[in-house]
């Protein structure tokens, strides 16, 4: 297919179009047996017209193998420690550090040192756990907001909200980022992991019980409930730190705002 | 090493064969062949020598890899092929291909230096092409049965020397339990991580996957690890989940449902690699079954994606585009999904990401162009997209793609061109576009130039996409004197005629476009005739395809109607009487001619007076 060089320069030239030629239709044009009529055509999604392009698209999806964060393959840097005060985790790749930082230090509550996966959950937590005004207001109106982004429903109690999450949003009943404030009890009985024959499981948390607990061996203000596994504390070498000292950097309100 | 290596490769081939066949459209698995008979050593991958060529514009690794593998890729290599890329850090693609089986490493710009190490390609290429054709056929079949499911896999596997290279091991119940236990309760962090890595490697095998999901509490433990505060464990657990999501066994993918609420929660996080992984996992789960989508929608996947699309990370965006395209491709999408997508901020962001410019990333653009296509062809509320400037953005994107096509010979761009063409064509049929003037119109000669450049590109690289390009041309020219004039003034009739021999479908479309031009009146026909049109028409009139003949006659009639002064004296081409030598049985009209009873019925004789010449056509 020979295209003139002028066409290529037309592509980059100034926009515009020539004055259209005059249109003069003859009524005999569409007379039988001829029936041509110029018209725009649309095709729905499943039309066979799209078959070739769709097949190409799926071949592309199936063929592509892209790299995931392969820690061994990342360029290694000289070992360095996490710069957050008190955290002594060591890294030799930037990506590893990035993920560690985002998981443990990015959205941390300065009051109770819990880490959250997102700013939204952190804000909700601070509001519901550490804001006395919230407690007062919640007695009069529905203040517990649904955790799903986009859902504007509010509820009287944490339990109501949880029921809503389970029923309406099909969330698991033991959703980790929605622990009610008062209950620092052991993990729900249903959480037993059959894999291990040991006593009641804790979903594999270092802290055992409360998923948001960042540090375990330095006891939180409330006493650990009976029956919770404590063997972890003994087994973790003292050189491993889970950011328990991070709170020193976050204690004041001002710094908390910076991190939000 | 030799024997062990070969045995392992056979195993991989058997696994890979099943996997690709099932993946490509859920065909029933073939009967298991005798291991000994299918034993064959894996040849070194020939694709780098044939199909890769480094090129200047930095395209993301996905497009480049596709190009590198598209013609040579076969199931034989799929489990063994890994791409190492440092593109994210260095900004350019200096990936190297690691073949787990043969342990060859190539630098991307160094293909030529390594060629000496490869066998002559010869029959291997033919075999690979054959496999590709098989896969294409399987995909076509799947599409007709509405069972087109394809998933994307993110996998990084270093062929660890110490382990002897065998990566996809089948793990038994006891081993899985052991790994899970170690991951959950191990003392040393590294030990826990290693346990999960071993589990993940095992989960690459379908049997391990099955064993895993049937093991009580296993998913629960995995979800627990996914939500732990140990960043590395979290990542490894997510990778295990990703392997499971990629399974072609429905039960395995559906077993991942308990994790979805967490995957969605993590989308609002900050760790781009982790988010990318979650998105690909979600995308694989979404396409799996309606049951999964029925859970994900109330869990808030659309708002989560709408929030995540504001991320600046290209890898995250590409992954998000993939997940969203899977969501929009669902059967129930027009009723259940697209309305909420259109109601969110997603359309504006999609259009923003498709805006051409130096920041346009091909991988990201491909995914979102397909998203847009699924939205538009469902015809839920295209006026909304037009009001957001969709038409002009797509028009500019078309220009951009045409420009890119000129700069580089490499394929991969048709992956973007195809959905853009479809979006434009379908949008042009919307009533909102009929309003004359304003930003809702494409009146530029640039568009025509771009389209023809793309048509030429398709002709060379992907002729199967020519009909789609010509469809856009039809929609542009049908009701627009402006575009018809552009075709004439830019001398594009002759290039158009050069497409006639490609296929019957293409011929019909070319003739339809010419009819669009001719039906506008004498001023237009004057520019069509005399010229190269007439000899071409003589050729198409002799075609064996009834639609081609029908459309040729329509065009002839229009030409003669508006140009009656064309004489048939000496010097003009003699138009002999035409007698149809073939039985013109009940013709079915194409989508472009419109529905209705066919004109040409068997046994009919037509006498057509064209100018001063009488044609007799017998319909046999």
Automatic annotation (TrEMBL), chain A:
PROSITE patterns: ZINC_FINGER_C2H2_1. Residues 177-211 are annotated as: Disordered. Residues 82-105, 109-130, 146-169 form the C2H2-type domain. Transmembrane segments: none annotated. InterPro entries: ZNF511, Znf_C2H2_type. It comes from the Eukaryota. This is Zinc finger protein 511. It comes from Ailuropoda melanoleuca. The lineage of its organism: Eukaryota, Metazoa, Chordata, Craniata, Vertebrata. The gene is ZNF511.
């Amino acid at each position: 297919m020979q295209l003139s060089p002028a066409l290529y320069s037309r592509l980059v030239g100034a926009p515009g179009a020539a004055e259209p030629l005059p249109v003069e239709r003859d009524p005999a044009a569409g007379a039988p047996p001829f029936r041509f009529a110029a018209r725009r055509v649309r095709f729905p999604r499943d039309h066979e017209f799209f078959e070739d392009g769709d097949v190409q698209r799926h071949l592309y999806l199936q063929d592509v193998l892209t790299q995931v964060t392969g820690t061994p393959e990342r360029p290694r840097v000289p070992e360095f420690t996490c710069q957050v005060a008190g955290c002594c985790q060591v890294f030799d790749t930037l990506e590893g550090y990035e993920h560690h930082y985002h998981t443990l230090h990015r959205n941390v509550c300065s009051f109770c040192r819990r880490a959250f996966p997102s700013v939204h959950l952190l804000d909700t937590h601070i509001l519901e756990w550490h804001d006395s005004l919230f407690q007062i207001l919640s007695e009069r109106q529905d203040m517990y907001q649904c955790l799903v982004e986009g859902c504007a429903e509010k509820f009287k109690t944490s339990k109501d909200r949880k029921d809503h999450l389970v029923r309406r949003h099909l969330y698991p009943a033991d959703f980790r980022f929605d622990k009610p404030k008062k209950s620092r009890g052991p993990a729900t009985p249903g959480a037993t992991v059959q894999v291990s024959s040991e006593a009641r499981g804790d979903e594999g948390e270092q802290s055992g019980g409360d998923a948001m607990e960042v540090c375990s061996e330095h006891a939180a203000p409330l006493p650990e409930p009976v029956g919770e596994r404590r063997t972890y504390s003994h087994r973790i070498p003292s050189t491993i730190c889970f950011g328990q000292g991070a709170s020193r950097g976050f204690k004041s309100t001002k710094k908390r705002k910076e991190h939000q | 090493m030799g024997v062990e290596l070969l045995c392992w490769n056979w195993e991989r081939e058997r696994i890979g064969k099943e996997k690709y066949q099932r993946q490509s459209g859920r065909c029933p698995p073939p009967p298991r062949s005798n291991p000994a008979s299918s034993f064959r050593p894996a040849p070194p991958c020939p694709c780098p020598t044939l199909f890769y060529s480094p090129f200047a514009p930095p395209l993301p690794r996905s497009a480049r890899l596709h190009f590198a593998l598209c013609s040579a890729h076969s199931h034989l290599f799929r489990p063994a092929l890994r791409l190492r890329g440092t593109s994210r850090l260095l900004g350019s693609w200096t990936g190297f291909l690691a073949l787990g089986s043969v342990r060859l490493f190539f630098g991307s710009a160094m293909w030529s230096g390594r060629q000496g190490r490869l066998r002559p390609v010869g029959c291997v290429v033919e075999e690979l092409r054959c496999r590709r054709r098989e896969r294409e056929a399987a995909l076509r079949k799947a599409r007709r049965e509405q069972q087109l499911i394809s998933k994307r896999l993110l996998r990084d596997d270093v062929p660890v020397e110490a382990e002897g290279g065998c990566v996809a091991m089948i793990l038994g119940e006891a081993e899985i339990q052991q790994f899970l236990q170690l991951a959950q309760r191990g003392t040393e962090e590294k030990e826990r991580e290693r346990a999960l890595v071993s589990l993940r490697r095992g989960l690459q095998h379908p049997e391990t996957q099955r064993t895993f999901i049937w093991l009580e509490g296993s998913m629960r433990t995995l979800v627990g690890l996914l939500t732990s505060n140990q960043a590395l464990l979290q990542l490894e657990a997510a990778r295990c989940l990703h392997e499971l999501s990629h399974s072609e066994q429905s039960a395995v993918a559906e077993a991942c449902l308990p994790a979805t609420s967490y995957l969605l929660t993590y989308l609002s996080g900050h760790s781009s690699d982790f988010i990318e992984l979650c998105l690909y996992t979600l995308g694989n789960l979404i396409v799996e079954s309606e049951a999964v989508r029925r859970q994900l929608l109330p869990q808030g996947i659309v708002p989560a994606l709408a929030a995540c699309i504001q991320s600046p990370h290209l890898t995250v965006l590409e992954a998000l585009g993939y997940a969203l395209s899977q969501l929009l491709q669902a059967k129930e999408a027009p009723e259940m999904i697209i309305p909420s997508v259109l109601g969110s901020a997603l359309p504006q962001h999609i259009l923003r990401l498709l805006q051409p410019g130096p920041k346009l990333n091909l991988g990201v653009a491909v995914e979102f162009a397909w998203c847009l296509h699924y939205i538009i062809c469902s015809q839920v509320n295209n006026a909304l997209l037009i009001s957001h400037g969709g038409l002009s953005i797509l028009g500019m994107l078309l220009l951009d793609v045409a420009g890119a096509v000129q700069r580089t010979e490499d394929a991969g761009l048709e992956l973007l061109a195809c959905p853009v063409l479809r979006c434009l064509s379908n949008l042009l049929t919307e009533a909102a576009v009929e309003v004359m003037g304003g930003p809702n119109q494409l009146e530029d000669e640039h568009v025509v130039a771009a389209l023809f450049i793309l048509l030429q590109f398709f002709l060379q690289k992907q002729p199967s996409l020519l009909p789609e390009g010509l469809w856009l041309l039809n929609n542009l020219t049908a009701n627009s004197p402006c575009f018809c004039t552009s075709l004439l003034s830019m001398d594009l009739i002759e290039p158009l005629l050069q497409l006639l021999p490609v296929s019957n479908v293409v011929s019909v479309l070319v003739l339809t476009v010419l009819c669009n031009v001719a039906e506008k009146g004498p001023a237009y026909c004057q520019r069509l005739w005399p010229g190269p049109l007439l000899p071409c028409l003589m050729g198409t009139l002799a075609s064996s395809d009834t639609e081609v003949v029908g459309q040729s006659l329509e065009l002839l009639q229009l030409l003669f109607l508006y140009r009656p002064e064309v004489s048939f004296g000496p010097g003009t081409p003699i138009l002999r009487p035409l007698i149809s030598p073939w039985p013109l049985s009940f013709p079915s009209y194409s989508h472009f001619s419109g529905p209705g009873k066919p004109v040409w019925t068997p046994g009919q004789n037509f006498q057509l007076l064209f100018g001063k010449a009488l044609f007799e056509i017998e319909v046999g």
